[in-house]
Amino acid sequence: MTSARAAINAALEAARAASGIRTPPKRPAAEPVTPAPAPAPAAPPSAPGPSAALPSHGAAMQARAASAPPPWDGAQPQAMAQQQPAMQARQPAAQLDDDVPSWVTDFSDDTAVAAEAPAVVAPAPQVRAPAAPPHAYVVTPVPEIDWDGNWPALAGSLPLRGVAQQLALQTELVACVVHDRSVTFKLRVPVDTLRASGNSEKLAAALQEHFPDFRVNVESEIGPVWYTAGAEQKAAREERQRLAESIVAADPFVQELERRFDAFVVPGSVKVA
């Protein structure tokens, strides 16, 4: 080793000693390096010359680089400093989750059932009242065939069954036309189904038996009806029902039971024979 190199090394050691910075350990090399032979003992330092007293600019740069900490030593504290606030931020969040207010746990019941919405009550269907008849029922006798003109009574007395009978009961007499030895019954039918399957022919045959001296024809049309045999039979049944209920309500024994035992007649229990 030359004297100049020895002087540089001495200056570096002096700079390290003055700054108080310990020489950082060197990172292990990726590949083993063959150790260099031991250096020869250094010659005794000679008198400091101008070049030894003041280190050159290159020596100063090497000394600054040697005194600076390695980059990996500075990066680790910085990463730790970044992780520490994140951990501190997560800790208060965990504490907030643990310290749940009491009113939250009081009302958070796993067995709670969702409140049922009130049932929607469907409006009651509006029953349309039957239209009033356009005219009063008038019985017009037909003397040519010796008939009083009461069609509901005649239709209810015909020997018919099934749909043919319903055709007779649900039809209304519009007119009865007599011409020579033939008679035509013009009827109004509420629904066309009653006229299907030869029911009109069966009704004409039954009328022919009732009026054997005349040739009977039946003509029908679709339209609303009021004065039919079915309507009269229904009105008669309702009248008999009202009469029976009034008789039961006026019975002295029934009235005594109602007065002493707070009894009552069950609605609909009175049946007409």
In short:
By secondary structure, the chain is mainly α. It has 10 helices and 3 strands, in the order αααααααββαβαα. It has helices spanning 3-19, 50-53, 57-67, 71-98, 102-107, 151-157, 162-170, 199-210, 229-249, 252-261, and strands at residues 172-179, 182-189, 215-222.
How many helical elements?
10
Q: Which stretches of 5+ consecutive residues score pLDDT under 50?
A: 28-57
What percent strand? 5-15%
Order of helices and strands: HHHHHHHEEHEHH
Radius of gyration: 62 Å
Tell me the span between the first and last alpha carbons: 146 Å
Helix fraction bin: 40-55%
CATH class of the domain at 143-227: Alpha Beta
Q: In the CATH hierarchy, what is the architecture of the domain at 143-227 at level 2?
A: 2-Layer Sandwich
Mean pLDDT: 73
Strand order of the largest sheet: 1-2-3
Instruction: Write down the CATH topology of the domain at 143-227.
Output: GMP Synthetase, Chain A, domain 3
CATH superfamily of the domain at 143-227: DNA polymerase III, tau subunit, domain V
Shape: elongated
Query: Helix/strand-derived class?
Result: mainly alpha
- Extended strand count: 3
Biased composition (Pro residues): 34-48
Biased composition (Low complexity): 49-67, 75-95
Region (Disordered): 14-105
InterPro entries: PolIII_tau_V_sf
Structural notes for this entry:
The chain has 273 residues and is mainly alpha-helical. Among the domains are: 143-227, DNA polymerase III, tau subunit, domain V (GMP Synthetase, Chain A, domain 3); 231-261. It has helices spanning 3-19, 50-53, 57-67, 71-98, 102-107, 151-157, 162-170, 199-210, 229-249, 252-261, and strands spanning 172-179, 182-189, 215-222. Strands 1-2-3 form a three-stranded mixed β-sheet, with helices on one face. The longest helix has 28 residues, at 71-98. It is elongated.
